[in-house]
Amino acid sequence: MSGCNSVVPNIRALLEPRSIAVFGASGRSGRPGHDVIAALDTFGASPDVYPVTPRYETILGRACLSAPKDLPSGIDLAVIASGSARIISDAEAAIAAGVGALHVLGDLGPDDCDRLGAMARAAGIPLLGPNSVGYVNYAGRQLSTWIAPPDGHREAGSIALIVQSGALFSYANSVDPRLRFSLTLQPGREAGLTLADAMDHALDMPQTAVLGLYLETVSAPERFVAMLARADAAGVPVVVLAPGRSPAAAEAIATHARRLAGTGAGLEAAFRRFGVTQVSTLDAFWTTLHLFSAIPVPGPGGLAILTDSGAQRAMTIDICAQLGVPLARFAEPTRARLRGVLDSELSVDNPLDIWGGEKDLAAHTATCLETAVSDPGTAMAVIVTEFGVPDSDTFPTRMAEGASRVAGTAGKPVVAASFSTRHFASGRMREMEARGLPVLDGLETSLLAIRDLFARRDRTHFPASEPLGSPLGVALAERVADLSPADEAGALALLSAVGIPVVPHRVVESADAAQSAARELGGRVVLKTAAPLLHKTEVGGVHLDLGSPGDIAAAWDDLANRLGPRVLVARMERTGHDLALGAIVDPQFGPLVMVGAGGIEAELLADRRFALAPVSETEALSMIAGLAIAPRLSAFRGGPAADVASAARAVVALSRLIAACSARISEIDINPLRVGLGGVVALDAVIIKTQENDEDPSQ
Hints:
By secondary structure, the chain is α/β, with parallel strands linked by helices.
């Protein structure tokens, strides 16, 4: 591996050390200062190792040095295995001795953590940690960790794994020999090397074909997004397990957009833009990494599934429908051939139950699988049974034999999957893997991973979006500066200026003016208080569907007496479907735009999509299509389709506005955006300026 393109200075000294000094070295097994030395023998030949301690003559056959001054010059890596009280002083001594990199195992408080990072930056050397379990460089057969992989002979592979969990790092290196890594790394508190830096280095490694991230926080968002973009451009899939992103974690502030953003909106937006695969369980994480590293992205068509029982077939059909797995539809020649080899009581529809009591099960399996794979509508095939049962059960062994014959010559991806995860005898599975037939675990988890592989094949690559031009952007910034807090009329005017159609309206301060405005607007109207309130309905500040002059005057009197004389009169819009549009400035990922279910469903359904702003129209259309309510906007049961293209253009316009004015605007909320047959109209809008954050006009 090269690492030569990394922005981290001298990263080779950290991840490819030829010499290592261990500060806080110990002769007692179970201590990090002992186990990190023992781990260096995992791959056989190890770098030159210099334990630094006055307490021992030798540790594990290596001569100890009593003080840092005794170190030879040119040491690549200093591993600081000392207790917390000595970390800073030992790091200072290591830097003074001229080491090329630091790896700090122990933990520090925030102030000392910052101090350590500043020391490394001042010295111009990379720092891993503090509180970093370390790394295993499988491709380079080197490591620095006190939790050694139990199998030093594990073959290097193509998965680069970066995890913000010491326990998960430990599990990864021992959990399953089918998972083959180029690199595993736990960055700790990231006072020096960040997760994004580690991603950069992993992408420099020619062995890396898939990048797996266990993600709890993003310390360098701009660089993280840049690394997602780099992986996407290189065709390297990124698989992320990121817990703690539920709506319950959302910060309930002001607008629908902010409430619905939660803690994961920025990540969601970045993942959407760059085609990241996100999983929600550890089983799905391992299975997806295994699958993505084992086979190429399939070509056109769907998935062919072969099972050996009616129960398996029935459950497979249910799971495929639930997950949205794209299934192959067999052509008639394929179906005819299957009729000739399957028992007459078995269906020739995909998924297949192929077992009818055949004596030569291996040959029968091979014939059925080859037939299914050769169908022009098949892009990939999976054969499912309990491959993990003990070797004494020869039934899955014979199925594995038949499937392995086909896998190497099919010309299309073929994988196997155990029906459940409750049996595990690894011998058969390892043999299947050695013969080129990857084995996944559990029907549902396996089909989820396969679905995500197809989703990667079918994903839309969003074109670059255009920001607002300078003259218009400057003019808008000036208009934002003049905007009063919670001024709905001003917000609507600003949205109109960027091309979002808004409901015809007037602001009045008398009953007569309200009646006159209603006549000008035509039809029935809505009266809303124009007082600086974010949540007008909660204080009785809205009167709907008014027609007669008397009703309009009475509504104005009510609002004026309770909330003040300034009232907004707007045309009553009846037809169409409601969306909610929003925009926020995320503290980590910057300006984001949102589209979701509108009206009261905005929070009831939590049906929304976020994207990095600005967005292209292609991405806006994809966001809308991804909503659970999207079928309502289509030509449902012969009815006319809503004007989704106009809705997408409104999303684009809003995204350009928040991107251009992110220094002045913190939130924008349009709810609802009424989507009709021939366009859209914003019926309600709130814009919160950055300086208003400390002044909640709803209070």
